[in-house]
Amino acid sequence: MFSGILVLIFSYLIGSLNFSIIFSKVLSRKDIRELGSGNAGLSNSLRSFGLFFSVLVFLGDFLKGLVAVFAGRFLFVYFHSDFYEDYCIIALSLIGFFCCLGHICPCFFGFRGGKGILTAWACTLLIDWRIFLSLIVIFSLVLVLSRIVSLSSIVSALFYPFLFLIFLPKILEISYWISFLISMVLSVTVIIKHRGNIRRILAGEEKKLSVKR
User: What is the C-alpha separation between 105 and 171, in angstroms, rounded?
Assistant: First the structure.
């Protein structure tokens, strides 16, 4: 139990390395949370600092999700190799959740972070690549039709837990239902982080993605 808690803390700390905040302070001596929409994420990085900066943020936030799940899985196998196969999906789901929680509420930056979409995608890639690709397709389709990034993120978050049931349909195993509940909690957390965007979408005030921009 203690070693499992250490693995989750490790994942949370990696997630707390919010690279949009780090790069904005290092490269421009500004805080991304005081610019644009105030969100410490990829979209605001692109609007506030441009393409090169947003590529750095993308790589940092995506890779930290991969590192968290990969390293967490290694540590879990090291400490719990005797029952890893039975609880693999629960372990990976929890590791991914705590990494995303770190991104959303980073302990290094006053618990004010991003919305967790990109990091969640990265964690999902190592849990099940089919779920990852499905999320990308859903996000892209909604973005093409609406040209609203936040709406695309919200819709993909809504579908996220149900993709677990579609691609991991071992309905008789309690571990998969626990993983479904974990993914549901993550989905709700991400949607709550988008509550301001939801209000603007309903009011018709949310900004659309511009090709020229």
Answer: 32
Decide: 91 and 58 in contact? Cβ < 8 Å: no
Task: Using DSSP, state whether 111 is helix, strand or coil.
Answer: coil
> If we measure between CA atoms, which residue out of 79, 125, 138 comes closest to residue 99?
125
C-alpha angle 106/192/146, rounded to 5°? Answer: 110
Residue 51: the pLDDT is 86
pLDDT tens digits for 5-46?
A: 888 898 999 999 999 999 998 888 888 989 887 888 888 888
**Residues 157 and 134: beta-carbon distance below 8 Å:** no
Tokens 């196998």, residue located: 77
Angle at 148 between CA 197 and CA 21, to 5 degrees: 60
Helices H, strands E: what count in the chain?
10, 0
* Secondary structure string (H, E, C) spanning 171-189: CCCHHHHHHHHHHHHHHHH
Answering whether pTM is above 0.70, one says yes
Q: What percent of the chain has a predicted confidence (pLDDT) above 70?
A: 91
**Cα dist. 147→38, 53, 166, 201 in Å?**
20, 22, 27, 12
Extents of the domains making up the chain: 2-203
Structure tokens at 5: 């808690």
Residue listed under structure tokens 């991991």: 168
